[in-house]
Design a protein that fits this description.
- It contains 13 helices and two strands.
- The longest helix has 17 residues.
- The two termini are about 30 Å apart.
């Protein structure tokens, strides 16, 4: 099965795409110095709303229906549907990766969306993901609103750009465990998005190949258990690779 064009471009690090040194909206937004549009919010205000009672966390419909914010929260080197958002530039990505405050805000944005999808980040170092308290309703929403599949692709690409690719494996393999062991999130649409897009948003070739093979085994009936999931993430943290070594 050939890879989608956008995935091939992503894996090539957008070869030949020029950097615009005068475009810095994403960097300024994540430095809390520029308001996103059209919502006119600072990143700190988005996270603060999320953390309070009258928040996006309590009003999931706002996150579901608002399509402008996602490009600001997860910038990638591609344009999207919000023409008031800017594609990520190479110089921005380099500066953002070196700024600890920016990275903390990226992680907070990831946790915001995990919660929206019925999940939570249990361990940042390994990328381990689990179910949130209200996961059943959020899983149902993910099944019923397939535009979120495109959002997840963007999120995973952004995490890779920000040097946080270990989080991608944590997300992907959590979903695979839910599909394989618990028969959750197991529609053909989600499987297609996962097999063709999400699983390929990993630039580390060895990790990408292992994840792809593990997914294939699960699709053929082999159970990918929670124990296997957690062990794979520990292995990646300890050895630098999620792939099992031959003995």
């Amino acid at each position: 099965m050939s890879l989608p064009r956008d995935i091939r471009t992503f894996l090539s690090h957008y070869h030949g795409q020029p950097d615009d040194p005068h475009a810095s909206d994403n960097l300024l937004f994540y430095k809390n110095r520029l308001r996103c549009q059209p919502d006119d919010l600072l990143i700190s205000e988005i996270h603060q709303r999320y953390a309070t009672f009258y928040s996006w966390r309590e009003d999931y419909s706002r996150l579901e229906q608002n399509h402008g914010f996602i490009q600001w929260l997860f910038p990638i080197r591609e344009n999207g549907m919000n023409f008031e958002a800017q594609a990520l530039q190479l110089h921005e990505a380099a500066a953002m990766k070196e700024d600890s405050d920016v990275i903390k805000r990226i992680i907070a944005s990831y946790e915001l969306m995990l919660d929206f999808y019925g999940m939570c980040l249990l361990n940042f170092d390994t990328g381990l993901v689990g179910r949130s308290e209200g996961y059943k309703a959020r899983y149902r929403n993910l099944l019923q609103a397939p535009h979120n599949n495109l959002r997840i692709t963007r999120i995973l690409k952004c995490l890779s750009e920000m040097g946080l690719e270990h989080l991608n494996a944590g997300f992907l393999l959590h979903v695979l465990n839910e599909q394989s062991e618990h028969k959750q999130l197991n529609t053909s649409l989600i499987q297609d998005s996962m097999d063709r897009w999400w699983a390929n948003c990993v630039r580390n070739e060895a990790d990408r190949e292992w994840i792809g093979l593990t997914i294939k085994k699960a699709r053929n009936g082999e159970i990918f258990s929670r124990e296997k999931y957690e062990a794979s993430l520990v292995r990646r943290k300890e050895t630098g690779s999620i792939a099992e070594t031959a003995t």
